[in-house]
Amino acid sequence: MSEHELVTRLRNGERRALARAISLVEQGGPAARAVMAAAYPYAHAHRVGITGPPGAGKSTLVTSLAQEWRRRGVPVGIVAVDPSSPFSGGAVLGDRIRMQALGGDPGVFIRSMASRGRMGGLARATADAVSLIAAAGFPIVIIETVGAGQDEVDIAQTADTTIVVEVPGMGDDVQSIKAGMLEIADIFVVNKADRPGVDQTVRQLRTMLQLGGAPADGWSPPVLTAVATTGEGCAQIVDAVEQHRQHLANDGAQASRMRALAERELAAAVQELILERLRGPRWEELVGEIASRRSDPYAAASELLGG
Amino acid sequence: MERKIRVLVAKPGLDGHDRGAKVIARALRDAGMEVIYTGLQQTPQMIVEAALQEDVDVIGLSILSGAHMTLLPKVMQLLREQGMTDVLVVAGGIISDEDAEILKREHGIAEVFGPGSSTQAIIDFIRSNVQLTRG
Questions:
Q1: What digits encode the pLDDT tens for the residues B54-70?
Q2: pLDDT exceeds cutoff 70 at B127
Q3: Is B134 inside any structural domain?
Q4: What cofactors does this protein use (chain B) (predicted)?
Q5: Which residues on chain A are in Cβ contact (under 8 Å) with B45?
Q6: How many domains does chain A have?
């Protein structure tokens, strides 16, 4: 099957064609690029990123939010990223366990992805997989990152709306939302709000946001609470995502976000193509020379790039 | 380009014991495979839909409830209906030799691993039989 035919079929709603296309972009190479070229013009969706520390309830929250969108009649695609083992390269992807309530609904498509060595909370092919799901006609695509610490902020450049999930009792200085996480959130959700300490966590988040002064883009991130296991609070979160989408559209901020995303995608594509072209016998020799300190990485890179 | 083997490990039916499935999932991960684990109490429809969305090369079905002669043929039938006959399906659990023979001969299960099977044997079987050139 040609890449073009594959994209035609996924746009016609063939779920298997979509699944196969995602595998192709995960592998990379010329076939992946042909698929992306065919699908890219149709990749319109609102991308909702969900990030936060391991165990904060991200998968459960994704499930409840998807159910809320489905109640409103909106099809939802989901890409859930879990870490690959740095030793074997394998992975156990367990996000579907908590997404069983979405099974059997043709308006939902879920794909699990291993990070395959990429840092930053996403896999190399996550943005491409999201584009393919968007091209298949899902107007909302939720991206769940690996359990993130303080520096896994790639999601903010891939998503239109970034939701940072916190839970009560994660440390009295709100450790996990220091610089990186605090800055990328468009919406904060304090999950497990049936536990003690939720008011304190909400207050701390609001205080830290106020300390930062007026937001540059005119959007003040709301701090919401949820109990993802029961769906409590999820209607308000979906409302907030829709408000943020409106804000981006009215404010012209969407255009600059799209440019930032485009630049990032271009940089990733350039890197991939250059590496693919340069890897060869001379590459291997230079790796050996660098390892034995007979050359250095910059000199070797200059030589490979012809000057 | 490197091609990862993707495996769905699923527990069809109503038994609540997934220690074996988790041991297998871990072993396959350590062998460099990407394992999608879907949890307990899966219907054949849920298993086949997950396998389709995840575009897996292999399905591993763990079943201890005794309902394997009902549930496993149903999974195979749904896979055929979806045109997913190139997916390698293996089963594990408490399955008699007679039943295993029927599942393999009549329903297309590639292999049945009973209690005491080594995880290495399962890894080797998958590596030797998986079709990575699916069309």
A1: 999 999 999 888 888 88
A2: yes
A3: no
A4: adenosylcob(III)alamin
A5: 103-104
A6: 3
Q: What is the pLDDT of residue A197?
A: 85
Residues A234 and A107 in one domain: yes
pLDDT, tens digit (0-9, with 9 covering 90-100), for A60-86:
999 999 999 999 999 999 999 988 887
Q: Is residue B86 part of a domain?
A: yes
Has the ipTM of the complex gone over 0.85? yes
Asked if B30 and A84 come within 8 Å (Cβ–Cβ), the reply is: no
The predicted structure's pLDDT at residue A8: 93
Of the pLDDT bands very low, low, confident and very high (cuts 50, 70, 90), residue B115 is confident
Query: DSSP secondary-structure letter at A191?
Result: -
Write out the DSSP string of A245-291: HHHHHHHSHHHHHHHHHHHHHHHHHHHHHHHHHH-SHHHHHHHHHHH
Question: What amino acid occupies position B78?
Answer: L
Contacts of B29 in chain A (CB under 8 A): 85, 88, 90-92
Question: Which residues of chain A are under the pLDDT cut of 70?
Answer: 149-152, 170-180, 213, 307
- Which of chain B's residues have a Cβ under 8 Å away from the Cβ of A110? 50, 53
Look at residues B47, B42, B7 and name the one whose alpha carbon lies nearest to residue B27: B7
Q: Is B4 on the interface with A (CB under 8 A)?
A: yes
**Cβ atoms of A25 and A129 closer than 8 Å:** yes
Strand bridging mode B34-37 / B6-10? parallel
Q: Which domain, by its residues, includes B51? A: 6-129
Whether B105 is in a domain gets the answer: yes
Name the residue among A15, A28, A92 with its Cβ closest to that of B25.
A92
How far is residue A87's CA from residue A100's CA, in Å, rounded to a whole number? Answer: 30
B chain contacts of residue A19, beta-carbon cutoff 8 Å: 52-55
- Residue ranges of chain A whose CB lies within 8 Å of a chain B CB: 1, 15-16, 19-20, 22-23, 26-29, 84-85, 87-94, 96-97, 100, 103-104, 109-112, 114, 116
Domain count, chain B: 1
CATH number of the domain at A101, please.
3.40.50.300
Beta strands at A91-93 and B111-113: parallel, antiparallel or unpaired: unpaired
A214 lies in the same domain as A282:
no
CA dist., res. B36 & res. A97, Å (int): 9
| A271: containing domain | 252-307
Looking at chain B, list the stretches that DSSP marks H as alpha helix, in order from N- to C-terminal side.
19-30, 44-54, 68-81, 97-107, 119-129
Residues A196, A86 share a domain: yes
**Residue that is last in its domain, among A205, A233, A251:** A251
Q: Is B51 part of any domain?
A: yes
CA dihedral in degrees (A85, A64, A222, A198; nearest 10)? Answer: -80
What pLDDT sits at residue A100? 86
Question: Does one domain contain both A228 and A101?
Answer: yes
